[in-house]
Amino acid sequence: MKFIDFGGQKAAVIALDTLVIGTGCAGFNAADTLYDLGRTDVAILTEGVNMGTSRNTGSDKQTYYKLSLCSDGADSIYELADNLFQGGSVNGDTALAEAAGSVRSFMKLVNLGVPFPTNRYGEYVGYKTDHDPRQRATSCGPLTSKIMTEKLEASVLRKGIRIYDGMEAVKLIKENGRIVGVAAIDKNRLSEDDWGLTVFRCNQVILATGGPAIAYDASVYPESQTGMTGMALEAGAAACNIQEWQYGLASTKFRWNVSGTYQQVLPRYIAVDSQGNEREFLTEYFEKPEQALDMVFLKGYQWPFDTNKIAGSSIIDIIVHHEVFHKGNRVFMDFRQDPKGLENGFGGLSEETRNYLERSGALMATPIARLEKMNRKAIELYAAHDIDLYKEPLEVSVCAQHNNGGLAVDCDWQSTVPGLYVAGEAAGTFGVTRPGGSALNSTQVGSLRAAEHIAFSPRKPVPAEELEGAAAEAVRETFARMEELLRGGDTDLAAGRKHFQQKMSLYAAHIRDPKAMEELAGELEGAFRGFFGENGARSPLDLPFAFKNRDMLLVQRAMLSAMALTGKACLSRGAALLADPSGKAAEMPGMKAGEELEAYRYLPGNGSHREDWIRTAWDGEQFASDFQAIRPLPKTDDWFENVWNEYNRRLEAAGLRE
Q1: Residue 280, SS3?
Q2: Per-residue pLDDT tens for 122-166?
Q3: Strand 9-15 relative to strand 420-422: parallel, antiparallel, unpaired?
Q4: Which of 98, 211, 609, 619 has the smallest C-beta neighbourhood within 10 Å, fewest atoms?
Q5: What are the residue ranges of helices labelled H in 574-639?
Q6: Which helix (H) or strand (E) holds 584?
Q7: Cross-strand pairs, 457
Q8: pLDDT tens-digit readout, 501-556
Q9: What is the DSSP secondary structure assignment for residue 576, as one 8-state letter?
Q10: How far apart are CA 403 and CA 214, in angstroms?
Q11: For residue 648, which phi and psi values (nearest 5 degrees)?
């Protein structure tokens, strides 16, 4: 680190070949792979090593989706790629790359010590997850991504790769259309005269900052996860399918997905009103209580809200949302006693539900006993966060969980801005739907592809530790913004963030109100345009929070742009129900008659534009979204000798082979 005087100020400057931003599964794997490929002048920048989604999220048994590696699971790379591709609005080249890199990436994790289970013969036996035509899923428990992150971090530390902890990236620096650096705030030096401003000069950046979790209030993302997608959008990187999200039932006291066995053990759903009155409510919506239980069971592996399953398991999400947001109740899953419908045993349940519980040896008298039998770790997880499922119910709501879209990338995970690579959830490689657990595979394959593309490209000299050109302009602009915030007085920055997050959850999550979204887009535009004039930081300690708020406004504006386009053209789609008072009722056969769910009338999807991906780009003033034809799924028929020769030429050009 070198300190340079600049116009009466000072700024720290660090020069290196490649900067990775983020310390989750994708970030650590990118740096680790680059090092192994000989590009050792690499460093990682992070707001906090222990922050983020990879280290702090999971479910009953967090899923890693991969190519089948068991004798009874005939599979192929192309079939896996096609299944990813069939999610809709997915580019075929990235789908094929994610399938092709699946086994290699999975086995690296195994060799690093991630304890994915095998049978006595060494086969990685799988199970079925949502949008999965096979049984490709595996897991090492509720904390799969946390274990992955820890093992990858250990590998990075053994190599001595530098980690700049406590730094928030706030601006990507471009020169001649290419990324040449990053301006960041060092939160360890906020009280110094330069307010911690640090400039990284580099040849390329790998952005592994996770999804834009900051966008929503009702969220299962850890509070430490915010993302930094807006920074890339402002630098000119286009977004891909940023309107496509996953939403599902999650606990709120401790943020966690309540999928899988949490649902399959058939907990009792109860609502508590403002007076503390409790009632079991699902039976109020169904003629037969057993039908409600069958829908709860299906939520286990059909966990994400899906507009194609409203006349099925996703009706549970709508009922819960209705109880919380329209009736003003708190909703809980209660594992302490059986729900209505099991008074005479399990005989009234569907064959699928009953057979699953029988084969699992879980025909016990209470949900907690069934959960203890099938997945004790799921109970221990909550106990570790002071929630005793044996003694208390679990508060839940419908929450944002994963952005299927993100920043647009090619099959090397390079964005539309040269020199900017994007890996993990920040990259938009999925579309309308995706198989559960495929996101973890994407973190590993995407970061591998980015690292390989950098390593196989000719080396460039490491930039000098100096401030000139675009880097100097970035310093001037960032200092000016900091000064304006510090002159602006005492603003409740947290309240401002909360305000827009709540509106996004109300009007632009799994239930989307076109008129309300249009009004919200106008409000967001005004807040963004006047951001540095209307917001003030109490002290330099508030500067990172303020810059993050601005990033949030950019992301939310991009999301609403893409949502407006798909809502108008496609109506309801994927996880987004387009509300309309004149539309179809949210119901299924067997539900009780009445107008209980009138607020959820919707316009069914028309199935259009699944052969397009949605491009959203910033012109410096506005976001514009349009449809782009998806890149087709490549059908390869390569001759080994030709591939071998071409591969060797790439290695030689990069100086990796003489």
Answers
A1: strand
A2: 999 998 888 888 899 999 999 999 999 999 999 999 999 999 999
A3: unpaired
A4: 619
A5: none
A6: strand 577-584
A7: none
A8: 999 999 999 999 999 999 999 999 999 999 999 999 999 999 999 999 999 999 99
A9: B
A10: 11
A11: -65, -35
* Alpha-carbon gap, residue 478 to 482, rounded angstroms: 6
Q: Any bridge partners for residue 173, and if so which?
A: 181
Q: Distance (Å, rounded) from C-alpha 628 to C-alpha 583?
A: 29
> What CA–CA distances, in Å, run from 107 to 67, 128, 413?
11, 20, 21
For residue 354, the one-letter residue type is R
- Lookup: tokens for 268: 């009792």
Alpha helices per DSSP H over 53-186: 53-56, 77-85, 92-100, 102-112, 144-159
User: Rounded distance, CA 209 to CA 225, Å?
Assistant: 9
How does strand 167-175 pair with strand 162-165?
unpaired
E strands present in 91-229: 137-138, 162-165, 167-175, 178-186, 197-201, 204-207
Q: List all residues 6 or more positions away from 285 whose beta carbon is below 8 Å from its beta carbon.
A: 292, 315, 319, 591, 592, 596, 597
The model's pLDDT over 449-486, given as tens digits with 9 standing for 90+, comes to 999 999 999 899 999 999 999 999 999 999 999 999 99
CA atoms within 13 A on the CB side of 628: 19
For 72-103, the DSSP string reads: T----HHHHHHHHHTTTT--HHHHHHHHHTHH
Taking the CB of residue 328, how many other CB atoms lie within 10 A of it?
10
Q: How far does Cα 493 stand from its chain's mean position? A: 24
Query: To which residue do tokens 């064959």 refer?
Result: 351
Q: What span, in angstroms and rounded, lies between the C-alpha atoms of 194 and 185?
A: 10
- Here the tokens at position 414 are 């390079």
The reported pLDDT for the residue numbered 596 is 82
Between CA 173 and CA 180 the distance in angstroms is 6
Burial profile 563-600: b = 16 or more Cβ within 10 angstroms, e = fewer: bbbbbeebbbbbbbbbbeeebeebbbeebeeeebbeeb
Give the residue from 153, 141, 113 showing the smallest Cα distance to 25.
153
Full-model pTM: 0.96
Amino acid at 475: V
Residues in the chain: 658
Q: Are strands 197-201 and 9-15 parallel, antiparallel or unpaired?
A: parallel
Q: How far apart are CA 585 and CA 570, in angstroms?
A: 18
Cα angle for residues 258, 259, 262 (degrees, 5° grid): 70
Q: What is the largest CA-CA distance in the chain?
A: 80
**Phi/psi of residue 218, each to 5°?**
-80, 100
Backbone CA torsion sign across 589, 250, 260, 74? positive
Q: What are phi and psi of 223, to 5 degrees?
A: -60, -20
Asked if pLDDT for residue 301 goes beyond 90, the answer is no
Q: Which of 632, 513, 639 lies closest to 81, judged by CA?
A: 632
Give the residue ranges of DSSP H helices in 281-405.
289-299, 315-321, 351-359, 367-374, 376-383
Partners of 584 in the beta sheet? 602
Q: What is the pLDDT of residue 54?
A: 94
- What is the per-residue pLDDT across 580-614, written as a single tens digit (0 to 9) for each? 999 999 999 999 976 689 889 999 999 999 999 99
CA angle (406 as vertex; 247, 445 as ends), nearest 5: 100
